[in-house]
Design goal:
The complex is a heterodimer of chains A (339) and B (316). With 339 residues, chain A is of the alpha+beta class. Chain A has helices spanning 21-25, 65-78, 90-107, 146-151, 183-186, 191-194, 206-215, 243-246, 258-261, 291-294, 298-309, 313-318, 325-332; strands at 43-44, 83-85, 112-117, 120-125, 130-135, 157-164, 167-174, 223-232, 262-273, 280-290. The chains are: A alpha+beta (339), B alpha/beta (316). Chain A binds chain B through residues 88, 91, 163-166, 212, 216, 218-221, 275-278, and chain B through 2-4, 33-36, 38-39, 62-63, 98-102, 105, 107-109, 215, 218, 262, 264, 270-272.
Chain lengths: 339, 316
Amino acid sequence: MRLAPKQIETFRDDFTYSNSPEAIARFPFPFPEDEYRYSVNIEPHVTPGPAGSAFEFLFDIDEHYLSEMAERGIVLEENPKRCLAMPHMDLACWDLIERAMVSLSEDYPQWFSLSRDGDRWHWQNHLLHIDDEFVFGDSASLPQPPMEYIGRQLQGDLALLDQRDGDLFLDAGIVTCPADWSLAFDAGMSFKEWHGPVPLAHEMGVFERALKYLTAIPVGSPVRRLNWTLTVNARMDTSPETYPEWGHERTGITAENVGEKLHLRVELQVLDRMPRSNALLFSIRTYLISFDDLCTNPDWARRMHRVLKTLPPELIEYKGLSRYHQTAVDWLSRFDPLS
Amino acid sequence: MSGSYIEVQVEQCRQVAPAIKEFALKALDAPLPAFSPGSHVVVEMRDGQKTYRNPYSLLSDPRDPSAYRIAVRLQEQSRGGSRFMHERIAEGSRLRISPPANLFAPDWRARKHILLAGGVGITPFMSYLPELQRRNADFELHHLFRSSRTGAYDADLRQRLDGRYFAYDSARDKRCPVAELMAAQSPGTHIYICGPQSLIDAVYANAAQIGWPQEHIHVEAFAAPEPGEPFEAVLCKSGKTIQVGAEESLLEALEREHIEVPNLCRGGVCGQCVTGVRDGAIEHRDHFLSEREKSSGQCLMPCVSRAKGPKLELEI
């Protein structure tokens, strides 16, 4: 059975965010083997995927929908620059609106509906009590700029990459739950520029291969990959802009509170060609699970231990885990019979 | 070709210039996807045992997905594809096409767009025009042709674009003054070329003289593979040996043997089909590999490039 969005929980201050047993069961655990290694782990995002899974539809709507949309509202109020779209990206934003509204209304008809009469569109989001009529392609006919309008109705961060001269440029997006990167800082950068800080992968030629693959993604054949890090507390907004609010929390992990405070943060990244603009949609759907909840699954607990234990030092540093990496490995060892 | 095919039926075909035929394609089952200006599709033609796959630009308005239109110039030295389209394809014929891909998109940051079309090179610009007009963009279309062969859509464009359209019919001795045209533009202008190599070379030569930035020049350079000497390709990983005929490309020969190589443009531009070479001299004919990569002799683009001797050993 599909998980209905529950009442609003928080990703800050008192951190009331929690996962139901059903949400734990469908968590997209990202490790296919015991040792973590870099790879261009991209696969076709063929929908519908397994029923009820995070991969079932193009956009996954789950029990945290209302909470994440409320959190996005708080972030945008604090800093409107967390959403931007350069003027040449207007058509790409409308591509995204079409892709989102068409797939949401087909995949979740109980929550979203769309009717179209030529360019006159009628959109209803019953979860957020939105009921709007507008003219497709006419940004003035929306209550907000197109990127913000659709971004406030989709879980996860969204970026639209303009494709020029065989490269991709980060020219539009709404980014309120990033794993320590900044849309305002990366705006306008090329693919290799915004991946500049990533260790090891440049030497391995990972980005040349990835870019060649990404620029060739055809219309109607989205692909996905999973990425991960660890986050202290169920904090969605771990951005450079708000670093003073969360950076210090990394020193507060102890043997006693690991299970409750430390979270595995998984990003389901989907890349999808936008037909009218030729832009590439990069959606980053973030899932958080506490170590306590993660370890209710013995296979996941054992593998999490092995992955963290064998993680190269460069990646421990890059992912910002240095302060508590050993504490986490020690705590997880109780779930691993080989340790 | 990567990705899934779309089944289409020819709804209409008409002669739009002495050597150019236009085809309107309708999808048989699902609606056709919307596309972006400058997109092309690869059309697959089955001729008995032979299969031709040629890329053609989409001519229709990108916002109108009811049918795709393409235009095909009958090549005097046709390797089969354009002749097949002209002589064997009629209304009601069925074809398979790839989903649209775009290697020649407008740069919407440009202050002004200069479109330079040579002959059938008018085709990718046909899908630019509706979008340029919708955005009230500043642009000029310069159309170079020889009315005894090409010059498709000349009258129609003259009427639609009014003062933004400039025609140069070499049959009437009208030449495009490329140097003057480029010198007259203000900074922030982008130039787009789809036409013969001599036109592309002229633009680059002028750009170098007047300091026109390379990033403001966009070229649709892919052309059908040229024939060459037959040779033998040894596939080191699978242990197979295949014969590449004079008229076919290495990529086509591989596909004939059911060896899938990713590709988009089939004309030496997109870089998708790059293949490792273990041994053998290479005749590079692509626009993708750097001079260093070419002289290394370790890879080639099988869509256009060939062996320079009797044999090539490939890392596939």
